[in-house]
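Exam revision sheet. Question 4 asks you to relate a sequence to its structure. Input first:
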Amino acid sequence: MITKHLTKKQNALLLLVIFCIFLELLRVQLTQSLKFSFLLWNLFLAFIPYVISEFIKISKLVRQSKFKMILVLICWVLFLPNAPYIITDFIHFRTNNSMVWYDLFLLFCFANTGLILAIISIKDIHSVIIKIWNVRIGNIFTTSMFFLCGFGIYLGRFLRFNSWDIISSPMSLLNKSILSFMKIEAWYVTLGFGVFLWILFSLYSTNVSTEVKNNSN
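Answer key, structure tokens:
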């Protein structure tokens, strides 16, 4: 089985993703409605940065070439905001239906899975950058990613941009991104999500460091 070749963390993440998919498919079966089917697509997009970070970790070819590393990192950065973005899908929650508690739990599971994928992916990239460059660059890069995610969430939820719009509509994306700095809600979302992700990352990093020290003793 493929799970034999995965680590405990990877198996747990796979199980979490499968559980989310099961919850959505069960809701479709119970309600005969595709109301929350968009969550499956959003979860797929949230999984992409994690896959890229895992690829960077195991690919010696990428890590041995800083140019290739930077190219792959750019792809990772473009998709990273999709992971924590799922939190904003709570905007679709409604209380005027018989599935209210199920829907709340469904959104909670998908949102938390996206957050977990984001934090683990950022941590993995942080470790790789430290090995290739140094701790200072790793910390600066990682911190900037938190707030870039926040701004990416604003672009996605409020301005309705997607990761691939940097290719399909680059000028529109650039113009509206620049204009966003004049809007107070853009700052609220960027700083709010940025600080939130930084706190989660700090907690996760502390736990990982503690486990490493305990295992080494």
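Marking note for examiners. Residues 2-216 form one domain.
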